[in-house]
Amino acid sequence: MHKMTEQNMINAFGGESQAHMRYTYFASQAEKEKLPNTARLFTAISFAETVHAWDHYRELKHLNGGFVANSMAAFGPGDTLKNLGLAIDGESFEIEEMYPTYIETAKFQNEKGAQRSFEWSYNTEKEHLKFYTRALEALKAGTEAVFGPIQVCSVCGYTIEGDAPDLCPLCKASKDKFISFNSK
Ligand code: FE2
Ligand code: FE2
Ligand code: FE2
User: Is 16 inside any structural domain?
Assistant: First the structure.
């Protein structure tokens, strides 16, 4: 793998790993604030970020050793209002800067596997941004956004509300590959 794409992949693994861990923390905070829909959203999306991290990690199987991951990391957790803002900042960075740049570099270097993994993440983060924006707008209005079942594709991380589709629109995985996060 070309060095630029390889480093981008290492960085993306770092970013997705931290996003996963941040969202599990944000879910626990939302639970404390009696925001079950928002907590469930964070839990579902934290799983999607795990899928992204694993997809990226598998692209690095030729490596053997330790490397520095240089990734966007949002620090300073607070209440759910603040946490949703941090989540939106992180997703926006990935959509506006990180993944478009990584995808173009992978294309330029003809790294097909890396390009696919970056594209799966990129297209999922756009959905994450919409979910978090909805949750934040409701909270600002003094209420909680209500979500139906949230479905996450265990192959590519794609995240949608409602019933799982017959085929994942992103990676074409079958319905049984979706993990459902339902309200209790
Ligand atoms: Fe992600
Ligand atoms: Fe995301
Ligand atoms: Fe998928």
Answer: yes
User: How big is the CA angle at 118 (ends 115 and 120), to the nearest 5 degrees?
Assistant: 105
Q: Give this prediction's pTM.
A: 0.97
Mean pLDDT, to the nearest integer, of 2-20? 98
Residue range of the domain that includes 94 = 3-147
**Nearest Cα to 76, choosing from 90, 84, 61, 86?**
86
Whether 154 is covered by a domain: the verdict is: no
Ligand 2 (single-atom ion) residues, CB below 5 Å? 125, 128
> Ligand nearest 71 Cα, by number?
1
Ligand 2 centroid distance, CA of 31 (Å):
20
* Residue 157 belongs to some domain of the structure: no
Distance 101 CA to ligand 2 centre (A): 17
